[in-house]
Amino acid sequence: MLHDGQNALVVDPGESSVVFDALQQLGLKLEAILVTHHHADHTAGVADLRQATGARVFGPLNERMPEPISRLRDGAVMALLGLRLEVLDVPGHTAGHIAYLTQPAGQAPILFCGDTLFSAGCGRLFEGTPAQMFNSLSRLAALPDATRVCCAHEYTASGLVFARAVEPGNQALITYQVQVGSLRERQLPTLPSSIGLEKAINPFLRTHVDAVVASIRQFDATALDPVSVFAALRTWKNQF
Ligand SMILES: [Zn+2]
Fold this sequence. Notes:
Layout: E1 2-3, E2 7-11, H1 17-26, E3 29-34, H2 40-43, H3 46-53, E4 56-60, E5 70-72, E6 77-80, E7 83-89, E8 98-102, E9 110-114, E10 117-118, E11 121-122, H4 130-141, E12 148-151, H5 156-166, H6 171-185, E13 193-194, H7 195-201, H8 210-219, H9 226-239
Parallel strand pairs: 2-3, 3-4, 4-5, 9-12
Antiparallel strand pairs: 1-2, 6-7, 7-8, 8-9, 10-11, 12-13
Helix pairs in contact: 5-6, 8-9
This protein binds zinc ion.
């Protein structure tokens, strides 16, 4: 959720009750609902919220969505909460997955990336190709390092176990795993992450690093070009 003290927007409400609770506790009016892709754990709360609040719903151009919805193409720009929000096509997890990017005045940018990028991981390829996901993640990796990464799931701790297997000698990864363990022990979130941090620890953003490539080729010696290396890493994670 983002809010300005009066109005709010939510991204990917997989259920409505937690959003209603937050709106009530903070005394907010729901202005908009932003959806990144069609999976039920991102959309199941949309109908209730829309009916109760009249909020406008925005989502991908070409995915099955709870109608009515304003459909957004790559590069679309919206004005909500006094912010400029931009849409990025990031196919791979689903065929039409989108992300939302905004930069509040005087603050680091904020990225809502749904199930495309997780901290220390990335989404499974349910509909898209490895090449699509590789390009989508490359696009996100090119954002400023300070960009706050609001992933849709708290999968950081398990992602780090795999990341350590891929790149056991990465000191940033070792340090981050200790921090994450401490946060999760206290039941605190590890998110948002940042693009700079993900570039340092996330194997799916590090498939150009020699040590990562060498490790992936131990899993699949036939992975030669960058997309094949990425695809092999994703397959390895699926089996891990
Ligand atoms: Zn999903």
